[in-house]
Batch of 2 targets.
Target 1
Amino acid sequence: MIGFPILSLITFLPVLGMFLILFMKKEQPKSIKYLTLGITALQVVLAVILLANYNYASAGIYEEKSFKFIEKFRWINISGISWLGTVKVDYFLGIDGLSMPMVLLTALISFIAAISSWTIEKSVKGYFALFLLLDAGMMGVFVSLDFFLFYIFWELMLLPMYFLIGIWGGPRKEYAAIKFFIYTLFGSVFILLVMIGLYFSATELMADGSKVHTFSLLALMNPANYSADGILSALNPNNLRLIAYIALFAGFAIKIPMFPFHTWLPDAHVEAPTPISVILAGVLLKMGTYGILRVSYPIFPDITRELMWYIGLFGMINIVYGALVALAQKDFKKLIAYSSVSHMGYVLLGMASLTTVGINGAIFQMFNHGTITAMLFLIVGVVYDRAHTRGLNDFGGLASQMPVYTGFVTVAFFAAIGLPSMSGFVSEALVFIGAFGVSSIRVLTLISTLGILLGAGYMLWTLQRIFFGPLNEKWATLKDLDKREYAMFIPLTIIIIFLGVYPSGMLDIMNSSVNSLVNFVTSLAPIH
Amino acid sequence: MSESLLINICIVILFLPLLGFTTVVLLGKRIPKLYLFEVAILGIALLLSIIVAYVKLSFYNTKDIVAAFTWITMGNAPSPGAISIELGFKIDNITVLMLFVVNLISFLVHVFSIEYMRGDKLYTRYFAYLGIFTFSMLGIVLTHNLLMMYIFWELVGLSSYLLIGFWFEKKSASDAAKKAFIVNRIGDIGMFAGILILFTQYKTFTFDVIYQQIAAGNIPFGSNAWLTAAGILIFMGAVGKSAQFPLHVWLPDAMEGPTPVSALIHAATMVAAGVYLVVRIFVMLTADAMLVIAVIGAFTSLVAATIALTQNDIKKVLAYSTVSQLGYMVMSLGVGAYAFAFFHLITHAFFKACLFLGSGSVIHSMHHEQDIRNMGGLKKKMPVTYYTFLISTLAISGVPLFSGFLSKDGILAGTLAFGKLTGHWLIPIIGFTVAGLTAFYMFRLVILTFHGEPKDHHKYDHAHESPFVMAAPLVVLAALSIFIWYTPNPIGASDGWVLKNWIKTPTQVVPLETRYDFMKPSTEEAKAEVHGEVIHSVEYTETMHWAHYPAMFLSLAVAGLGILIAFMFYQWKKLNADKLAEKLKPLYNFSLNKWFLDELYDMTAIAGTLSFSSILAWFDNKIVDGIVNGSATVTRFVSRMSGWFDTFIVDGFVNFTAFFSGFVGLSFRRLQTGKVQTYIVFVIFAIIILLMFFKPF
């Protein structure tokens, strides 16, 4: 168990990089950029090492011994202060099939975003320092197994994000940054409250036989750890579990973002610089759904079962509503932002099915949406860098001017539409298969299939408006992709097509954990 | 040849065009000659498919060869049970026939395109797209399960999108491409829902396993209605791809693509995929589902035929005739004439590809003139094109000695028998009407294009016969439109090897009570033998026999009548088409404007969706986000109020206290004069007051 602390390394490597950058001279922007690129590349290597040493049978979820790469020690330990008893927080990291795909995604997207950040020229030092801090925060969320630690990383990433939008953003950057910050913080308050409620409701049996309140997610999943009078204990007839669940869910839902909490997203995306949009859509949104699966589902299985129809309902609303609103957009980036709302709806719908197929589909969709939407935002960035406009009606005929770019755009757009042979199809199909199999959300699933149609509608319309038709003379000087841009698009394209043809490459990683989660959440008798 | 070798050859055939596509897409810019590689690859695929067809039909005639592998497995899933998704191939007679048809037409179109597309800006790219189309189409043909069918179904949609919009600089082309994809998606949603129903029940996508389950009495959600629904929903996919009413509107627009593409995709192969799908799911169709299919097919064939009467664009006429003929095939499946439907698919593929390539040859030599009112007299200039076009027209019109007669006659006999057995007489009536209309508009097309005097002399003078690579495919396809390839008896299709040995109507698997009466097997020993398989009642066989000659004579009569009227109008000018059009103005306009369906869809579905989406966008911006910003405003107001309260009330009190003490201090300062006399006076006063207060004395 106490092996090489590879998870700490992958999480804090960017922090190390941040400090290095702080000591570098700001007259050397090139070396700062290369350092960042190196750090993120190293992170990708570490993620691949993790994958290579990962045991596909590791179920994880509620069982500590079946997590991989565990690091656990007492981090905060204040013994015996008055009525609080011993306060302890563990530094507890580990990986299972839920987090493995997310770690891979975070490493990959950070790397791509680092390449994309090459065009940043304003206060390079500050930008890349914050960038790396953000990277660390994201990675930390996905590897933490202690609620307290999870929450720290969750909040940690807010700060750099705020500055990255607020300083390097577009014309309305202050508005967007503040909106993002306040909105997410607002959600975090709920998470914090529930976290504290859970802390006081449950205890963990220590080696010395004493019972100590705990933040350990795994301990909180075990119904036997709850005291009869805890406010969030199922044993307490007057418990507040339903309210706590909704509060926690709302906290996570803001991040997804779930209707009606989604309006910060278009603003944040439109104002954020391209690499930050890539990270925002590629990784940050997944934290919401990841949090629900990691925290809400196994800690509140009873309420989850009760509310699954509503989760499915919101999934359906996200899918159809997001797609319809996307159809009406006139700004390229806003359109992609709303398409994210729609695509994250599939994740919710799959989660609502509470079946292995549906949740596998949901997590796979999280990964695929990460890669596909990252590519879409990069695409917007390419054209915005050159033309300094994003109006869908300002273009026309770019296909003849920028053929290679158009080729990548076609791949990304059809991936977003869910064309078979690309990864998005498999995950959406699994979501539909899983959700349709559950009779209570069958009708919701059928309505959600409209998303497939509307998605084709707005994507192809965009393709036509920007790339087809006669070339708008204004853009006759635009250059096709350069080598750096190839370096961003080619890996993503390969991954999208590879996982479309061979989805088992990703599904096998998560399958046993998802099985375990579904088992845990759906079985009425405690499994521990 | 062993079975596994056969399968392996099929897999090679499938992936060859994909190899062509990737090679040409990645390297085509540097090596423009690579298009020849793509053509050569199709040649190899064609040769291999001929070998496969020969081996399969002669040595494994009654045996299906299946190979599958597991694509996704969740073998230990607790809920809703273990899942394993298989992909795989199934080689039966229908598959190998389709393999041959697709590869042959694709190869001929490749060859034809070498000359037709020469000089195009994206010449090499064009061949790459043909490659990915062929790959996708072959996938549909070879699959043994619904999921893979859907996967390749969508890929075909993609390649169709790319090829329709090939000349993307034209707005009409990119519009048409978008329309085709989206309209097809509507059908695909239905198809996907149907697949979901089946998967939920059977946990598999494999056709044969599903059919075994249904035959064993395992019905989706325990209800025949769901079985019917699954059938109709999957059929919706065919409604989209095979351009059936009400989703047929994309196909005529798809003519914006290069003409060889129209021949390959939008006439011969891809649009036939819908029919192929129905062929594949035929055994799980209940009587209700079949009736829906028959009605939609019949109505489609009628609508399209009435529109084709008045079109003036050579490709539009052919496009609507394609829609109409696809309607025929679908109708034929709906009335249970399975074998004739598939037979018509094959014969139609050849003669329609020939017609489209012929029109391409005309358009090419007329410098992209497509309006038949500006043509005429081309017979002399383009004899090869003319005679091949004529042969195909005779075939589609249902004239004996040609392939179309064989298959069409069978379909009409099937509808007639169906009418007699079920009382749905409207379907045969529509069937025969459409046969007459078809003969009429096809000969109208031939006469206006090739006969008579040239109308545009400038273009006519420049017209010339097409070069060898364009003429040769026409000859091959025209030759395949003659009866001898299918049967030795020019009026008896059933005597031929195609129907007698190769295509056999499979046994229905749906519960007896959901079948047509005539599709229930008879209980007695006198089970009817139709093409060697026990499927239909004695009654049906007898009715088919009864229908054979009446149907043949009737179809000959209507076809002859149609051809005669066409000659009266356009060749001999005994009747005046313009005057008739003037007289029937509303009807004429209705037909010319395609029943105003595009306008109807624009005004309802499209405008409705777009305005609804605008309303939602407004709602999102003003209401949902308004609440967010509003609560921010409220918070700011409250904070400003508390700020005011803090400044003026809370802090005001503090300041007031300070002020008060200051004031008091100030007032008392006056007392501190610094003069001893004053202090003494104060002290004396104080003492006096104290003495008065305590009264010590």
Target 2
Amino acid sequence: MSSTITKLVTPLKEEADSLLSASKPLTATPTTNRLIRRKADFSTLIEALEYAAQGETGYNFYDSKGNLKSVIPYKFLRERALTVAKKLAGFGLPRHSRVALIADTTPAFVELFFACRYAGLVPFAMPVPVNLGSHAIYVQQLRGMLESSQASLALAELDFVGFLEEATAGLRNAEFKWCGTPQQLEQLPEIDVEQSANTPNETAYLQFTSGSTRLPRGVVITERALMSNLRGIVCDGLDIREGDRCASWLPFYHDMGLVGLVMAPLAAQLSVDYLATRDFAIRPLQWLRLISRNRCTIAFSQPFGLKLCMMRARESDLQELDLSCWRAAGVGAEMIRIDVLKNFAAKFASAGFNESAFLPCYGLAESTLAVSFPGVGQGARSLCVDTKTLIERKVAVQVQADGRKFNEFVNCGRPLAEHKIKIIGENGDELPPMMVGSILVKGSSVMTGYFNNSVETAKVVKAGGWLDTGDIGFLHEGDLYVTGRRTDVIIVNGRNIRAQDVEELAEQQPEVRTREASAFGISDENGSTSVVLVVESRLSSADDRQLLINRLQQVIYMAFGVNCLVELVHPHTLPRTSSGKLSRFAARQGFLQRNNFEKLSSKTAVQ
Amino acid sequence: MPEITQAQIAEMLCEQLASFAENEMVISAETNLITQLAIDSVKLLNLVMEIEDYFDISVPLNTLVDVLTVQDLANLIYKIKSASK
């Protein structure tokens, strides 16, 4: 293969370039489409693109200053994807081979993603590196995903391809063929291969859910699951209508960014305005300016993104914004605290933001993206439940009397059509409304499993096709209220961190033995979560102990971008179950007691 | 802006970073941003914003993965600044 690549470095077709570099200024794709709207009633993603390509709408990419950088109408996306698909065909890969893409917010990523689908290949998005000093760990994470997916190709833009080259250098996949940039792919010849059309039962893409280096899990999403979820989002969730336009800063490697703000708009022929995640994170108000300027009606964020906007907005910023157009302000991807929404609404009310636009929803990658939505336009509703009853009896009782301690939970709405939610107790029995237990989901957008990993799949996909979400909550009048996560996932500033991954990193240190580290999250009264790592240590010198603590903090930061509280304890301090497994829950209780966080313990016992 | 050296950049960063430090810690070029200053993701974004505005540069994400100390960061800024001329 490599010999063909070097031989065929011919000048590119000039058309694509000249389109972009034409002297007239760029114009974003319009909000109004002449094409009759179809609401995600397609059987495959390519069918959705073929239809959208008949209209004028599409994707628009903006730079950090808010200037329009590239415009990709769906019509153009289709042509580009078909061209790139012919280049991919040159590799002669078997149908359904996996293609890894480092997903920066660029036109090249969407072109490649759809090109893979035209070529009968299965793409998946990998994250861009974001943490200080994370070079080595990032490369390990990439390698983990490439191995777990048994990828045949890997592509990244120039900024990131160096990491891919490092990650693929020691790769053990026999099927791995090539790693390069979209520009290098562009130089390959186009090969005409008759592709059979995609069918609903085929895998559409994989979605990785964690940056674990040892056990990355790729969620397998079929065309049927995807289209079912898109229909749910477009029809039940957002009730798409004339005049809708989306704005997004969400990363393309995240399910909410990819399914919610790349594929759903396409399936409803909507235009989208993109801001790179990095640019949003540094200057969050650019997102609000895009919404205001382009009269966008739909934009989603994690609660953390809303907090960033609040932290950075000045009075002068508020005056120049008009957010009255924003009718669906989706919030999801982490526990939603009502305070964050109330504060955001209060801050931006003077800029025309209407709090009835809030759309707090629930979902997870294992069910493609969305599981439940509240009614559009009803805003964020919540329920105040008695803390004591919640902790002691796991029942949500609405507070009646003043002065009782309570927890306030956000209403995440009802399941999408073709989906059901049930709450089960520890013995697996279904619980009645108001009883707190594990949230299970069943329906047409639930994954078929984790790629090539029946062990992990069996842990979450239960009898009857019920998916155990790993989250805890209750139902009330048919609406879902999420009260917390289980102890195996720690969510810090919108990032999901698996406790197991933190423990693994600790155990890679020579001083730490396996099963002698326990990681969990603790939350303070404002709801911010910190990662805590308790490690059993035999070191006696204070200097050695401090060095180990520093090193642990550094590797955890590099891997996850968070600060970690490290506590070294004597051997045999960490509580174990009868089978010798560490109990994170008990380890957390012990940590809170030793450090006099008793108050925290009652506050967060429900989480 | 007149020619600026790596040492000058490092010195300026030390001053700026003083706001992140706890209990009057002395910040030098060798200070580790993660273990000694506990720069979390929010602080990092603030820092990048200030650096971009101050030096009138754009700091690509991929370059931060090799930064551990104040000196590393100063070298990076110097490199971007020189390349953008």
